[in-house]
Amino acid sequence: MWKGISFVSAIFRSNQILRVLEEFTKLEGDILGLQEVQNNVYPLLCKSLEERGFAGVYKKKTNERVDGVAIFYSTEKYKIISIYLLILIHLIFFLIL
Predict the structure, then answer these.
(1) Residue 46: CB partners within 8 Å, gap ≥ 6?
(2) How do residues 18-28 score in pLDDT, each as one tens digit?
(3) How far apart are CA 83 and CA 15, in angstroms?
(4) How would you write 34-88 as a 3-class SS string?
(5) Model confidence, pTM
(6) Contact 30, 78 (CB under 8 A)
(7) Distance (Å, whole) CA 41 – CA 27
């Protein structure tokens, strides 16, 4: 595999993240939900959004996946009472039975 691909991919992802953060800031949102967030990107998002007054929760997908979902919320307007991390496939299986 050509090593330049991963570098280009990393730059593309970082530009995507910056655009999402810029758009979110412009919209003055209180809650931001993201999917397919790589586990090595989540700490960077946390740091950037903490500076804007947000906290977040992350749930990695099951198996060998390196991505998951993240929800960020305004700490000025919301306070977490409890967290329930669900594995959706188990929930779907339960509902089908």
Answers:
(1) 55, 56
(2) 888 888 888 88
(3) 30
(4) EEEEECCCHHHHHHHHHCCCEEEEEEECCCCCCEEEEEEEECCCCCCCCCCCCCH
(5) 0.72
(6) yes
(7) 22
